[in-house]
Design brief:
The protein is mostly helical. Helices cover about 70% and strands about 0% of the residues. It has one domain. The protein contains 15 helices and no strands.
Length: about 260
C-alpha cells in the first residue's frame, strides 16, 4: 500500500475527504452501519460494556467521529486516534478476559469501506475503480496501524472477501432484535421508520434479506426531492426534521470545510 504523500493521513484532494466531509453522505453510512452492526457475529462484544444498548445512536456516532478525526487529521493526530481505538479495545478484552475475534475487526473495517462507496454513489455519482481503490487504501492503512491480521492486500481482494463476508459472516440473533428495539426506543416510531427506509436504500441485498427490511416504499422519491432541495439550500430543514434534537448539532458539525 502506498503511504500518504503529505503531512495529512489522507490527501486534501482525496475522494475520501469528499465522501466524509458531507453530513448527508455520513448519515447514510450511519444508516448502513446501524443495520450491519446488528448482524455482526461478534455483536456480543458490542454489548459487553453496555454502551451500545444504552445509547446505540451515540455509539454509532462515536465510530463515525473517530473515522472523521482520522481522515481529516495530520499524520501524527490520525495515528494517535487509531492507537486510541486499539487501546480501548484492548481494555475491553482485558475486562472480559478474552480476545475480540480478528474477523470482528475486519467486519467493521469492510463495512466502513463499503458504505463509504455506497452512500456517495447513492447521493452523488458513481465512483470509478481508482476512487474505490483510494477508499480501500485509506481504511487499509487504518487496519494495518491497528495490527489487524488477514487484511486484503488490494481492492479486488477486498471485494472478494467482502462478498464472502456477506454470505457467511453475518447472522440474525437475539442481539439483532434487541438492537432494533433500542433503535426504535431512542428514535421514536416516525424516525425509526425513516431509518429503516434509508437502510433499504443503502444496504446490500443479503443484509436486507436477513433483517427483513423489505422494499423501498416512499423514501426513494423523497431522496430525489432531498437532492433537489440542496440546490435551494433547504436540505438542512428536511434533515433536522428527521433527526432527534440531541443529534442535530452533531450532524450539522459533520459538514466539513476542509
Amino acid at each position: 500500500m502506498k503511504a500518504s504523500r503529505s503531512d495529512h493521513f489522507v490527501e486534501s484532494t482525496s475522494i475520501v475527504r469528499e465522501i466524509w466531509g458531507k453530513a448527508d453522505t455520513i448519515l447514510f453510512i450511519f444508516a448502513g452501519a446501524s443495520a450491519e452492526f446488528s448482524l455482526n457475529r461478534s455483536v456480543d462484544w458490542l454489548y459487553f460494556t453496555g454502551r451500545l444498548p444504552a445509547d446505540p445512536l451515540g455509539r454509532l456516532f462515536s465510530t463515525v467521529d473517530y473515522s472523521r478525526r482520522i481522515i481529516f487529521s495530520e499524520q501524527e493526530g490520525a495515528l494517535k486516534a487509531i492507537d486510541n481505538i486499539t487501546a480501548i479495545h484492548k481494555n475491553v478484552e482485558h475486562s472480559r478476559g478474552a480476545s475480540i475475534p480478528a474477523e470482528a475487526y475486519l467486519e467493521v473495517l469492510f463495512m466502513l469501506i463499503d458504505y463509504s462507496i455506497r452512500s456517495f454513489e447513492l447521493l452523488e455519482r458513481k465512483l470509478d475503480l481508482n476512487e474505490k481503490t483510494e477508499v480501500f487504501e485509506v481504511f487499509y492503512r487504518v487496519g494495518a496501524r491497528m495490527g489487524l491480521t488477514g487484511l486484503p492486500q488490494n481492492y479486488p481482494e477486498y471485494v472478494a472477501m467482502r462478498e464472502n463476508q456477506l454470505i457467511r459472516g453475518m447472522r440474525k440473533s437475539d442481539f439483532t432484535a434487541d438492537l432494533y428495539r433500542q433503535y426504535r426506543k431512542h428514535l421514536g416510531a416516525a424516525r425509526y421508520w425513516v431509518l429503516r427506509q434509508a437502510q433499504v436504500l443503502v444496504v446490500p441485498g443479503r443484509v436486507n434479506r436477513l433483517l427483513g427490511l423489505g422494499r423501498i416504499h416512499w423514501l426513494a422519491p423523497i431522496l430525489y426531492l432531498y437532492k433537489f432541495s440542496r440546490l435551494l439550500n433547504l436540505h438542512n430543514l428536511l434533515k433536522n426534521a428527521i433527526l432527534p434534537g440531541a443529534y442535530v448539532k452533531q450532524v450539522q458539525a459533520l459538514d466539513s470545510n476542509h
